[in-house]
Fold each of these.
Amino acid sequence: MSNDQSGSVGSPSHVTSAPMVDHSALHRGLGVPSIVAMVVAGAAPLAVVSLTVPIVITLGGSIAAPLLFVIAGVLLVLFSVGFTSMARHVRNSGAFYSYIQAGLGRFTGLGAATTALVSYFLLQVGLYAYVGISAAGAMDRFFSIDTPWWIWALVAFAIVSLLGYRDIELSSKVLIVALLAETSAVLILDGAIFFTGGADGWSAEPFSPSLLSSGSPSLGLMFALFSFIGFEATAVFRNEARDPDKTIPRATYVAVISVAALYAISAFALVLGAGPDKALDVATTDPASMTPNLYLEYTGAVINDLTTLLLISSTFACTLTFHNVLTRYQYTLGSLKVLPTKLATVHPQHSAPSFSSLVVTIISGAMLVAMMLVGLDPVLEIYTWFSGAATLGLLTLMALTSVAVIAFFRTHSGEKNVLSTIIAPAVAAVGLVSVVVIGLMNIELLIPSPGATATLLTILVTSFVIGIIVAARMKRTDPVAFEHLHDQES
């Protein structure tokens, strides 16, 4: 058991082994492809190429978006080096909070746990709103039928809730199909642009390091990193993976590298498609129309219409992924008695934490209905505000995780690899902290409303404090459970 500098109760003689949850009842069939499909679907590649890449170009102030995605990918590979090194030692599916707890102590760890839960719930509700408005827009475009966005949000909510309640293998199959469809749509556009050579022919200028001296590359990098949110969920599926000590690290690297490659190649294609000399002006003038217009120009009306539908399925797949992530977070916290142990029960037929899934359904449903009743705009307010706050919270947890890796291996002398235990996580920590600071300095780009900014940042900070309070209460009222928070650390 590792040292806990911030709240260990030591190992007094009266402390006996706490009953631990038997995870063997869970489905254990997930391999690398299934886990990669779930976490890459969480990153929503088609949505990123359609919505985020033009924003990276606009805010970066140059055509360096392809290079910025490469830099973001390298930074997250370095993060993954420490992340996967910890996966061999921390044997539960709590991901961020488990690693932060192992390195920085139980109080900080449980603060991270509650912050992660709040961040993922905010992201989940924001995604429901985006699915709803996208589906309503498609109905109006293709059938001239005006429908409220919340009807489609509730339809998506019902389907996600049903799939999340059942065997994880069912969700993985749905996500694999959705991911293949949206990735194919992205690659069709890339191929069409590359085949024609784009507007002005081939050019390597978008990868030129000299572009980093102009514009605002730090802002572009911030949004490029935001596009990767979701890949960290590989470790959340540890308890349902085949041979998790091998599956989780492999899935993490495959997810990060494949997503980085797809984003960089697609950003390059968009710049070539619009023309290196015109891409910045095109993106700045109307970022939301840049990718659809390129689809129309290079692939025709049929493919353009198809991508409209696939954008809905892309966001839906993202929503399903985070429902499953939340379910596993709660399951793990229930198994450690941080949350009610009922959350750690496994459905005998579905071999899944179905009760935890039901709780996620109730909480996210209540949040969604509340936002509907308040009358918030589904994109400009619910999606923009909630996803912005959630992303900032999750990037902060990633930075803390990198710091925790260094702290953890300082007390585990068995690890001799300086690159994976010090250098890589240190570089990742510096990069991620810098992005968080940039995000806070430019918070109006993430959450345009000052009132919403103050409210959501207060919620994130309060969630961390609540986690610390929960840890203090556990230490006082249930020292055995508190001590065994580190039990799954070897």
Note: The radius of gyration is 22 Å.
Amino acid sequence: MMITDTKDRLKLPVPDYIASLVPYPPGKPIEELERELGISGSIKLASNENPLGPSPRAIEAAARAVREAHRYPDGSCFYLKRRLAAHLGVETGNIMVGNGSNEIIELLVRTFVRPGDEVLMADPSFAVYPLVTQAAGGAAVRVGLREMTIDLDAMARALTGRTRLVFIANPNNPTGTIVTAAALDAFMERVPPGVVVCIDEAYYEYVRSPDYPDSLRYIKERAVVVLRTFSKIYGLAGLRVGYGAAPEEIVSLVERVRQPFNVNSVAQAAACAALDDRDFVERSRRANADGLQYLFAGLAELGLETVPTEANFFLIKVGDGKRLYEELLREGIIVRPMGGYGLGEYIRVNVGTKAENHRLLSFLKKRK
């Protein structure tokens, strides 16, 4: 009999929590779609990327830095940390930098979670949280949303003596909704000492609500990590640069498990330059706000329900999300089906260029 399970065939001593992991499914690449269907001119509205591309200043800095690619990068990210500290108004010792904020999420789990420990998170939320928790042998404790928003009151009730880490995505992915400053304050008062709270603000720069929390103030007195990234509004998703601000004690512990040279020199240079490109950030904000207004108006005319968002993406209730996703693929439009998040009636769409937004609406109007 043929044995197809590699673990059984090679007798590898793999824990069940590793063998049963289901890898994170990234958004379908344009190249893969066009290769499969033999089409061209496709667009991608699936991965919450900046449709304007990278910051121009970042492109110039990256081009200069690649000339020194034969040298190892600065393993401490000294200049980038110094720039980030000034940008955030914290000390350099409060900054950690990762290969995308994804790496910092994993480093936090590796640092603070042992097999059997609990990691608290909303459901649905960013799919990486439960994956890295399971990979460490931890128990992912998932708390359902309330009206498509993270229910911090329910999460506080779910805290136990085994809770070691809490993830709060704000805005939440995939819903785009936020928790308010008042709600977060009330939650933090209920978190016991020794529990690390990670507030993931990957879409921070897109938020317009006056009720959004100033999460950085927590790091002065609590075990809080505030995560942000260059992947979204700065348009550097392909270079993988994320960062966090936290008490120095947490940063020091995470640094002990971090791989050396985890952020390459081209990425460091591009990120430093991107921080200076305030015009690009503002242009990206305006483009996102205009795109949301156009798309929400067009979808309302079609009678399609949407979830209000503070990010650069949003949910559309379409009935059979998988079916529409597949129809859109054949039209060369990549979106994100939400069945894997328990939201099978929805698709998730990020704001594109004006032409891309128009193309999506045109297809939906024609389909109707």
Note: Residues 221 and 345 are 42 Å apart (CA to CA).
Amino acid sequence: MPAERQYGRRRREEGIAGDAPESSGRRSWLFPMVIGAIAFFIYLMTMTPGMQMGDGTELATAAHVLGIPHPTGYPFYMLLAKLWLVITIGGDPIVRTTLLNAILMAAAVGVTALILADILRALWRDPFAKAVYIWAGAGALTVAFLRFHWSNAVVTEVYALQFLLMVLFTRYAQKIDFTDAAKLRRRLIGVTVCLALGLAHHRLSVTMVLPWLALWFIAWRKGRSDVALPRLPWVPALVALLIGASFYAYLPLRAMSDPPVNWGNPDSISRFYNHVRGTEYLDRGLLKPALGKEFSASTLALFSRLQTSHLLTDLVGQFLPIAERFEAVPGTQKIFVKSGGLIILISWLLVALAALGAFRLWQSRQRAFIAVLAAVALQNVIILYVYNIADIRD
């Protein structure tokens, strides 16, 4: 092979590995913007035009009057939504907060495209980068129009901001380079800021705590063995966490002003704790059929069957438009989605696909499999403890 062709091939392979030329760098930023714009346009065309069922009306009203919505209060979202309402002029507040949600979810879709593109570049040993962009774009748009993501992008809800913070956290973690001191410091601060803002927003952000601790632990171990790495940015990280925690001061400060929306009136230590902890919800949580009632063997079997069917239907429902039929068990507070046989079959096929992936991981890297399994189990236990309410899937 001539030297010029060898050089050209080597440069293309280096580009796939991440050492792309400047024009490729510009294209890499254009790519997530285009994917996010596609998602935003469809969100905009399907956006709820006004009043909404669910929490949207309450959240928009609370943002409009700087009030306190239902637990956990979502202080970061309240302040962000209020700032958005001040910036935007004209139109109903709930329409403008819904538009904010569409923007946040579209931004999250763009970041997802970047995450997938880097994963595919690492796996795809091919000099043609267009295929990477096609598959990453398709994957990101699939994420954009999963049922729960789409439904939360076209109403006023807290989950679009939550998803954006979590994919930003993932992106910073993905780009961490333990051999580059400057990048390591920036990315560690980045994941910490995402965690801090997430904890100031929604309790589901506790799912970022374990990977955050793992990243800092690995960096600390690397720093002890590599004298070239500087001290970790402990002080900026601590400042970021304190700033995130300070958002919760919004709740008692606004409660003292008695705003029109003042759920739980958290103006004392006990009421503040109950509101942030969601104590109003905790008496209706895991495996509790109703207030003051306990399960019997027969009702527990019925509950388990309906709950499993509901979970499987939710899984398929992310990808397929399913007409839902609901079923309530007498004497309980839970309402379940009834499923047809075909839906259950498809859902089990998806579960089998996940099991196959887990088995392949076990075959190739048993320690990684055990670590992943333990992390997933621990994350679920944490969620059940801090976010165990009646309207989530136990």
Note: The chain is about 70% helix and 0% strand.
